[in-house]
Write a structure and sequence with these properties.
- The chain has 162 residues and is of the alpha/beta class.
- It has a single domain (3-158), classed as Rossmann fold (3-Layer(aba) Sandwich), CATH 3.40.50.
- Helices cover 25% and strands 27% of the residues.
- It has a seven-stranded mixed β-sheet with strand order 1-7-6-2-5-4-3.
- Helix 1 (11-24) packs across helix 2 (41-51).
- It starts with a strand and ends with a helix.
- The structure holds adenosine-5'-diphosphate and magnesium ion.
- Adenosine-5'-diphosphate is lined by residues 8, 10-11, 13-14, 35, 37-43, 111, 133-135.
- Residues 8, 10-11, 13-14, 35, 37-43, 111, 133-135 line the site of adenosine-5'-diphosphate (ADP).
Length: 162
Amino acid sequence: MAKIPLILSNLEMTQKLGEILGQRLPAGNVVLLEGDLGTGKTSLIQGLGKGLGISDAIVSPTFTLINEYHDGRVPLYHLDLYRLTPHQVDELYLETYWQGIEVPPGIVAIEWSERLLHRPSSYLFIKLSHQEESRQATLQAVGSDQDLDLEQIPSALNSTSA
Ligand SMILES: Nc1ncnc2c1ncn2[C@@H]1O[C@H](COP(=O)(O)OP(=O)(O)O)[C@@H](O)[C@H]1O
Ligand SMILES: [Mg+2]
């Protein structure tokens, strides 16, 4: 489970990283994001929505808990657990989102995922942090059946097209 460190020099790079993931991630994947307020979790997911071809504006679900978007390549389920305790999160049975039984399989992207007690068996972990005026991201494929080649991401990020 190699960790891929990336420097994101500006907002556009944060969104481009999301866009690259949105273009490549198959339905059923879960993206767990951690990082302090303002490190770019929502910004990255806005790019992810763009990569999925979602045209609706992606807004922070801090107060709504979950926003769903169904007009892209696959559905996007965007969750923000900031206002919840781990116990409250546990009672929501978020597993239904990644099991894809009660909802159509899509990409599940979760901000403040450190509040999750029960995680999927495999997921993409993204840790964001402040780095002076920029941000640092660390990507890690956790679990066995990751179908995304993370080694390709740095060159895709630094090329001129996504
Ligand atoms: N790589 C970056 N470098 C500098 N500023 C960034 C970068 N990525 C995002 N930002 C800015 O940081 C803020 C991040 O906000 P947001 O995405 O809402 O963060 P979070 O969801 O983690 O609280 C926004 O003002 C955005 O413009
Ligand atoms: Mg946010």
